[in-house]
């Protein structure tokens, strides 16, 4: 009887350890991918953006199929999820190239979890450990990022092979992506 009890205790301790390890890594990668996205997204130089798109096409399976034109309704602060019988000229057209879709999708899915806890992305119910992991990622990113003119060097030297890329989805459904993006927008624009 004591061997069974000891085995159960060991199993629970290991489960807690690996659960905390995953949670800490999840918090870290939310912070890291947030930094990556907000550093790549504002790059307007067409040549650099094209190089980033090519980099993702060459290094991440399924990236070539990802280039979405989405339509934003500024009244509802949401992207349209159903375009049938809709006059899209009434809405703002926004293009999301592969790198934005891939990074945002992983970022959103990491913080979305079960849909109730957005920590640390939106500071809900954050533990100190969660916040420390999140900010450690920001610090690690800032040590490797040296500006948009060096974006390709960053991607090749620091991003490719980074452990947070393991959260990238190889097949991203446009409808699910739009719904998830709307969750992000709703959370970012909600009144505190």
Major beta sheet, strand line-up: 2-1-3
Helicity level = 55-70%
Q: What is the string of SSEs from the N terminus onward?
A: HHEEEHHHH
The termini sit apart by 53 Å
What gyration radius follows from the Cα positions, in whole Å?
Answer: 19 Å
Mean pLDDT value: 85
| β-strand number | 3
- What low-confidence regions span 5 or more consecutive residues with pLDDT below 50? 6-22
Largest sheet: 3 strands, antiparallel
Shape call:
globular
> How does the helix and strand content classify structurally?
mainly alpha
Strand content: 5-15%
Helix count, DSSP H or I runs of 4 or more residues: 6
Number of structural domains: 1
Q: Would you spell out the secondary-structure blueprint of this structure?
A:
Blueprint: H1 2-40, H2 46-59, E1 67-73, E2 78-79, E3 92-97, H3 98-112, H4 128-144, H5 151-159, H6 174-189
Antiparallel strand pairs: 1-2, 1-3
């Amino acid at each position: 009887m004591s061997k069974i009890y000891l085995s159960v205790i060991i199993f629970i301790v290991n489960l807690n350890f690996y659960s905390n390890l995953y949670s800490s890594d999840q918090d870290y990668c939310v912070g890291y991918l947030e930094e990556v996205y907000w550093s790549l997204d504002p790059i307007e130089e067409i040549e650099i953006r094209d190089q980033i798109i090519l980099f993702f096409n060459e290094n991440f399976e399924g990236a070539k199929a990802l280039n979405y034109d989405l339509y934003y309704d500024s009244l509802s602060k949401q992207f349209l999820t159903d375009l049938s019988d809709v006059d899209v000229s009434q809405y703002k057209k926004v293009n999301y190239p592969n790198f934005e879709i891939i990074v945002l999708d992983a970022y959103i899915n990491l913080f979305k979890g079960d849909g109730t806890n957005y920590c640390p992305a939106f500071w809900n119910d954050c533990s100190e450990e969660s916040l420390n992991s999140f900010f450690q990622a920001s610090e690690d990113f800032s040590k490797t990022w040296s500006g948009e003119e060096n974006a390709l060097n960053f991607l090749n030297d620091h991003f490719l092979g980074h452990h947070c890329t393991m959260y990238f989805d190889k097949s991203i459904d446009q409808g699910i992506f739009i719904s998830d993006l709307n969750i992000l927008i709703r959370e970012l624009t909600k009144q505190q």
